[in-house]
Amino acid sequence: MRHPLVLTLCAMGSLVLSACEKSDNATVERSFQGVNVVDESNLNDVMLTVADPNEAVAYFQRTAGEQPDRIDLQRNLAKSLVRAKRNTEAVAAWKRVVDHKEANDEDKVDLADALIRNNEWEQAETVLNGVPPTYETFKRYRLEAMIADSNKEWKRADSFYETAVGLTTRPAGVMNNWGYSKLTRGDFADAERLFTDAIRLDQSLFTAKNNLVLARGAQRNYTLPVMPVSQTERAQLLYTLGLAAIKQGDVTTGKGLLRDAIDTHPQHFEAAVRSMRALENTAVN
User: Fold this and answer.
1) Of 7, 131, 193, 229, which has the most beta carbons under 10 Å away?
2) Rounded to two decimals, what is the model's pTM?
């Protein structure tokens, strides 16, 4: 008489154990899914920042191909193509992102950036014109300034550069761009001021140092400004200043600066030596 009861209890025990086992497995599976999400996020960050650019492209091409509906993977592929300087492919990738149903205004700005990198200025301007004016970011205004520059719309460029500077905590790069814009217009004094400000904010920005020397040379000021430079940088800046002097017709001063550059450089300064030889050959002929 007891056997059916025992069997029933055993059966119920088995069901409970089975349910517990399924519950535990589900919990473990969810835990591993959480770990996988964290691991994937970390790996994506690594690929976008420190990995070899072309390796990152291959990684995101594979992952985006496996999950084509995920816009975050499509964005990462587009960013990695920009980082690898594969600009034509980057434009195509950002266009796919912009066409995605979850795309936003930031994606359009990134597409405009890729178009500029690919020298497609008119298309970039069209894309930015489609971004609402209420979307105000540093990158948007920096690109607007560059496009205004390319169209020689100087007042608009200055306005956009000024706005961009106010929207970032690291304005040295955009100040350098703004200074170069002034340099190309022939506004050398303003260019010099902007390059000086850029160097003050980022002393490692050699491009701004070189541009500053060009601005001073254009004003026939052939002395190096006081700023932190390595010996190699000093030689390169003297070389730039020498070429600027020669371009202005101050050949004797230019030759002296080229000699200083050759003497200052810690190694053989081939470019300066070639320029000096060319000058000497021209003088002989």
Assistant:
1) 131
2) 0.80
